[in-house]
Amino acid sequence: MPLLIIDEQACIGCGACVDVCPFAALEMIDDIAVVNDNCTACSACLEVCPVDALSLPERQAEAPGAVDSYRGVWVWVEQFNGQASSISWEMMGQGRLLANQLGVSLTACVLGENAHPLAEEAIAYGADRVFLAEDPTLRVYRTEPYSKILYALVREHRPEIFLLGASSRGRDLAGSVATDLYTGLTADCTGLEIDPETRLLRQTRPAYGGNIMATILTPHHRPQMATVRHRVFEVPARDPARQGQIVPVSVSLSENDIVTRVVDFIVEEEEVNLADARIIVAGGRGVSGSEGFEPLRELAHVLNGAVGASRAAVDAGWIPYAHQVGQTGRTVRPDLYIACGISGAIQHRAGMSTARVIVAINKDPEAPIFDVATYGIVGDLFQVVPALTAQFRRKLRT
Ligand SMILES: Cc1cc2nc3c(=O)[nH]c(=O)nc-3n(C[C@H](O)[C@H](O)[C@H](O)COP(=O)(O)OP(=O)(O)OC[C@H]3O[C@@H](n4cnc5c(N)ncnc54)[C@H](O)[C@@H]3O)c2cc1C
After folding, report:
1. Which residue lies with its CA nearest to atom 48 of ligand 1?
2. What's the domain range around 97?
3. pLDDT tens digits, 128-182
4. Which of 212, 280, 285 to mutate to test the pocket of ligand 1 (most atoms within 8 A of CB)?
5. Are 391 and 367 in contact (CB under 8 A)?
6. What DSSP element (H or E) covers 112?
7. From the CA of 376, how far away is ligand 1's center (Å)?
8. Is the predicted pLDDT of residue 96 greater than 80, yes or no?
9. Do residue 90 and residue 155 come from a single domain?
10. Which SS3 state, helix, strand or coil, does residue 73 take?
11. Cβ 127 under 6 angstroms from ligand 1
12. Which phi and psi angles does 158 have, rounded to 5°?
């Protein structure tokens, strides 16, 4: 249902709102503005209405004391084809720590078709309770059914914290659920902790182009919602002996209620899974062109790793965006990150500085990448990288 409120008595039918709406959510019928379901409550129309005939409902803070009635930490378990994304278990580890600190339970939300094994996995990774919604309509992720179910669960059970992965699906779902709940959402968190005095969730994320780390609080609304970047937290140890409660959730959805249809899945031509790679060989502007990535690919191949890139290399069109590491690319946490011809700008470091071992190859000894490198090699990458490849090839063969 659209959120926009139109005062029909005040509307003069000027059509200014229709022209400015980016979602084609407004039209004129009998000289009165009428809103449809495309409305996202973006508020673009409010500013242009000359007679203040348009408004959005007041976003009410919870009544004093009401926020204290919310209890518990929740995590959404993201899955594709019945396989959980590792980010879900990373959040489960952090969710467990937060729940322990608050003295509350940790709940996992598992949605899918035949998803019972995932519910058991969620318990093994730390959940005390799992809400399990199984239905053919939930087989693949779609915003409408997933957000409807999570919205209803939150309304009924009132968790104080709700974490989702900052994946494409998690970002989409979190925004939808938070909007319906009228609560705050901090996107792309790289740190989460509890303020022991206030019980508030301190949600930390890079801001202003990565130049500062902002800590965001949600004092007046619940739940405190956050999406969490992949590989920021460690996957906890799996304990198959852990006990927990699986609560089935009844699903009363039919395909006819859902507008979105999944037509097909198209796998990216050059498949790259940076998030799960244990070794990454990344190139920057220093590789000087798309062919400059060849020696890096060879090294990555010998080490059974993946190829990453700086934004400069991606923007130059030398390598697809899926390889980009950094603030506006992927966050990675490999065992070994080899940065070749990358200066080490803060936005790049935001995505890789938690790698266990960082090797930097750069011909400028003053390059900032050396500040975060475990080992630094000052030299020309076109000499150093092939030499490393030859050495590793020899070592790994013996
Ligand atoms: C809002 C915002 C978001 C951003 N997000 C990202 C992001 O997600 N990821 C990201 O990477 N950047 C991001 N950036 C861009 C970032 O600020 C830098 O511009 C970018 O990381 C620089 O890429 P680079 O290190 O490859 O290039 P440069 O900074 O140009 O560095 C090239 C390096 O290569 C070295 N070099 C040159 N030739 C050789 C050689 N033959 N051998 C060895 N070394 C050599 C040079 O000494 C130099 O240090 C973002 C910027 C903004 C404003």
Report:
1. 343
2. 66-257
3. 999 999 999 999 999 999 999 999 999 999 999 999 999 889 999 999 999 999 8
4. 285
5. no
6. strand 106-112
7. 17
8. yes
9. yes
10. strand
11. no
12. 55, 65
